[in-house]
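In the previous chapter we treated chains in isolation. Here, by contrast, the input contains two separate entities that must be folded as one system, with a combined length of 776 residues.
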Amino acid sequence: MRRPQGYLFSAVEAGIRYKGRPDLGLIFSQTPAFWAGVFTRNDFKAAPVLLGLKRRGEVSRVRAILVNSGCANACTGPEGLQDAETLLRDLAGLLRISPEEILPASTGVIGLRLPVPRIRKVLPDLVAGLSPDHAPLVARAMMTTDTFPKMVSRELEIRGRRFTLLGLAKGAGMIAPQMATMLAFILTDALIPPAELAPALREATEGSFNRITVDGDTSTNDTVYLLANGQAGELPSEAWSTFREALSEVARELALLIVRDGEGASKLVKVVVREARSAEEAELLARAVAHSPLVKTAFFGEDPNWGRLLAALGKLGLGLSLEKISIFINGIPLVERGRGMPEEKVRKEMHRAEFTVEVRLGLGQASSEVFTCDLTYDYIKINAAYRT
Amino acid sequence: MRRPQGYLFSAVEAGIRYKGRPDLGLIFSQTPAFWAGVFTRNDFKAAPVLLGLKRRGEVSRVRAILVNSGCANACTGPEGLQDAETLLRDLAGLLRISPEEILPASTGVIGLRLPVPRIRKVLPDLVAGLSPDHAPLVARAMMTTDTFPKMVSRELEIRGRRFTLLGLAKGAGMIAPQMATMLAFILTDALIPPAELAPALREATEGSFNRITVDGDTSTNDTVYLLANGQAGELPSEAWSTFREALSEVARELALLIVRDGEGASKLVKVVVREARSAEEAELLARAVAHSPLVKTAFFGEDPNWGRLLAALGKLGLGLSLEKISIFINGIPLVERGRGMPEEKVRKEMHRAEFTVEVRLGLGQASSEVFTCDLTYDYIKINAAYRT
């Protein structure tokens, strides 16, 4: 996997919650990086989110991201904020930078305090382990119920210069917009002015992390950070749109990895609603389908139960016309103008690990898409016993 | 169980979908009954719902309810409407009444046509079996994934006269307001003018069937019928409020039976949100908690995971203040002003088959409550394989 210049990575086992695997990660930029961040809209923002929001108002350039799994440091009050600040201060001392130059991110159980002494003890090891090769370790240290680490990279060649993007993410549970519930860090070695970064990240988020759902629950800790350290030189302004496209691709791939690894998920399903009267209507309907537990269990059962699809579309009471609605799975008709079609060919498509449900409403020109997964026994297993 | 005067019941096995149990039921009033009905708000209303809505505009008195399980007769187009009308016409002939005096109700798989010839064949047996004693058979014939039949009765004594209410319901899946997804028929022998019936039923529905959720999916077939045949005489107008109260109690008990028998459910949970700024806000938050798959799996795991409760409350972005929020389970504090309390005593309460989660927001005076159940392996089992 290509890596952007000037970034070092490290991860150690701090024993926060998991045993025998790294749970504390550090990303360090050798030079100050312009940055942008988007955060959860949950009322109860975790301490690292509050600090991230504070940084956004304070500093245009940062040097590092400190991330831990196992403990969300959410709903921990002023003490939780202090815990995070203590760690950032310690780490800043070791890195010889200011604490404001470090972005914090946590994921894991809500309501637990961070085991600060234990984490402090391993900070020197964390710093000592920094290496350009250790990005996969950080991707692993971010994992909670994730079953695999998530990394994506892209390379741009512009006027003979090479610019690289690298994205790391964790997801699995409490995955819903807005904004999709997860951590993601995207690093680039391009020099991009901060005024460009924030809108580019918002755009990328809208088409990716905000279009996925596992269970409709929005966490207290969702965070996406984008860092641009300029080590590969200035990105010519005519290449900004190329960069934005690449950024959106990286975000989208990470988002799909998150859904594919949704808690207990065995299938990745794209729900596309077309021919709506407005993009908002299309999105509401796509989300209604993507959130429906009955639809999601039917996906798991590989049952082309179009009655449930229609019921999910109809339940919002938007005034749809049944006789105008057609539904396709991987392009094969399941409902044509309100009537069920023979199901055998469609059922075969549902045996696949990925498929698309396309709904045509016959009402207008607008469309929207959402990515979801199936609802399985393992979702229950993972979540009934998560803390025990 | 007390039964209202002048109602006969019958059920037979029509082999619509299930084997070895009744799946076609009939309720017959010996005299015309004033009636009221409330129906699903799903855009795609099943044929029996469309006919019920039509009746509501046409006739103030009816004689019978015909109900079947196994096939919802939903999304079946003009043919589905014709199927229902054919059956009602046949049945009307056998009962020597007009088809408009029969209210239809169906529940089961969406998108299937009714096996009309098979049902026609057993209609004479259905009529021949009418008896005041067979109400339990009808409650059984309505069942789909329900594990037990649902009946509730109440008796009022007013000025030496006895008035009786009897309610029958089926629920289990696709249970969500508005209006809660199920069939329920409430019969009384009181004579109540139709102008009183409709608002009384709306009021009763609001506090019962509209306050429950199993999976947040609203079906195409939800129907509540209320019949009042006057066989026990006229209800004095000063007793209307007593009647309304009894009606609300019957509806509420039926609603609770439905949640208790929610698909795969092992626990009935009442979610009460108090101290909200408005009833709407309280209701939105109660529903957010009651719908959250992560909260519901934690109920199943008997895990007092208050972080998930807070995350569910916060995800709407209503501007709540964490430090004002307290949460109790069966009165025992789990969160006090945003801080987690020792969990052991609370965990014990969660071992019960029923418990109450009370959220105090500290923002105002308004409150709302919703009934929900846990999300279990059996929900997945039932719904992944429902049609196969």
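Chain B is about 35% helix and 25% strand. Chain B touches chain A through 61 residues (CB under 8 Å). Compare these points with the single-chain example from earlier in the chapter.
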